[in-house]
Amino acid sequence: MTWGETLAQRRSALGWSQERLAQQLGITRQTLIALEHDKRLPTLALAIKLASLFDLSLDELVKPLAPDSIGRTDHWRWFGAKPSFPTLVVWAKIHDATVVVPTMLLAAPRLPDALWNPKSGVLTPLPSARDPQRVMLIGGCDPYLAWLRDLYEEKRPGYWMEPIRLSSQAAIAAFTQGLLHVAGSHLFDASTGQYNLIDFPMAVTRLHYLTWDEGLIRHPEATAVRQIAIREPGSEAHSLFLRHQGSISWAPDMFYSHQSILEQVQHHPDWAGVGLGSLAATCGLIFEAWAQESYDLWIRPENLKSVWGRTLLEVLASKALHGLFSQIPHLALSGS
User: Residue ranges of the HTH cro/C1-type domain (predicted)?
Assistant: First the structure.
């Protein structure tokens, strides 16, 4: 039984009309009809009101929101280590498993799907829970993934994209393990001078996405640089630093996103950083290009015909995305 069917059944058991329940909740009858037909989900505030009216706990009320597979631990796959503390998570269906991702790993966190209780080993769906088959996980270090997400969700209402902040190597590893729908990378092969020559154990399709300049970022008021902010091992930015380390005497310190490096240099004139020229230029920082890199997306061929796969291709080819990137220095769409 769906959540909407459960709502309608409990309303009928009380002998209440749709108009009466809508008045009790402070919503319109049209909104209640949409809830009972599973065309929308309740807000947390509305779910609390319903739980009180029906004399139920919130857990009992939202239980029907859980997909069948969520109750079967053999069908869960955790993205990263299973947390040992209560954790808010989002979920997505990849192949036959439900991948569960702590919201702290997301590049742009928002409403969670469930709460993980490590003591009971239970995932409790929240009123904001979504159908995991309509959630797409994309991993990589592209700082503009939130733009891609917004255009994707505008193009296909009722489907969601969740970006996970990962280094190129970590994104490729997660994609290979079936923990991502799409992975992004800009890995340099020193023997050929080319990017993203990756030997996957399965068939993949490469989508040429962005070309960007990466190099040294400095504060315009810097008089003496003492430290340099670099990305973690497994990222191409880290490898780029190692290839130029001989010309740098500053002490390195690791950061885990392009944005965090940018903010460090912005607020500390005695720091430099290895990062993207597009971010530096739009924040008034000095940039010295070290490499022009290809940042590509990887997807399984069979997923190109899925609803979410077709939507992704439409967004990558859209005028809206081209318009967003066309005015930014050191950055260009490379086309699919």
Answer: 7-61
Q: What is the pLDDT of residue 59?
A: 65
pLDDT of residue 49: 85
Topology at the third CATH level for domain 131-336 = D-Maltodextrin-Binding Protein; domain 2 (3.40.190)
Instruction: Please give the pLDDT value at position 69.
Output: 44
Closest CA to 76 of 94, 62, 63: 94
> Domain 3-65 carries which CATH code?
1.10.260.40
DSSP state of 284: T
Which token pair is 204? 């993949």
Q: What pLDDT is attached to residue 1?
A: 59
Q: Who's near 284: CB < 8 A, 6+ residues apart?
A: 220
> How does DSSP classify residue 106?
B
- Report H helices in the chain: 3-13, 18-25, 29-36, 44-54, 58-62, 145-155, 168-176, 236-244, 258-267, 277-281, 307-316, 319-325
pTM for the whole structure:
0.79
Cα 4 to Cα 322: distance, rounded to the nearest angstrom: 40
Q: Do 49 and 42 form a contact (C-beta atoms < 8 A)?
A: no
Q: Which parts of the chain have pLDDT scores under 50?
A: 68-69, 71, 336
